[in-house]
Amino acid sequence: xxxxxxxxxxxxxxxxxxxxxxxxxxxxxxxxxxxxxxxxxxxxxxxxxxxxxxxxxxxxxxxxxxxxxxxxxxxxxxxxxxxxxxxxxxxxxxxxxxxxxxxxxxxxxxxxxxxxxxxxxxxxxxxxxxxx
Length: 132
Fold this sequence. Notes:
Blueprint: H1 11-21, H2 27-34, H3 44-51, E1 68-76, E2 83-91, E3 100-102, H4 112-123, E4 127-131
Parallel strand pairs: 3-4
Antiparallel strand pairs: 1-2, 2-4
Helix pairs in contact: 1-2
């Protein structure tokens, strides 16, 4: 059997993903509605492989790059929203005082792409915080 390609999927599948990505569908509802299209040897995981973002080949800065320091930090929300995780990145060498930047993500949280943007900012001479 050939590998499933994006072109093989109907527009309804992409519309479902769009609803999920923009918080109009919960993950549970998304999976339930998407499973309708998993027929005739097409698995749900193969459909997800076509519609979900794949960050593996898009990371530009290795998290272990010796020119930067990166660490997960945790802090409390000042309005009582609970604990927040963030990635704090900075150049490993250089000035003690550096300009700061906050890397704000879209509705998908602190994903590998956003962490990579924070590392790129650090290599450009900033202290960056990418909150989840």
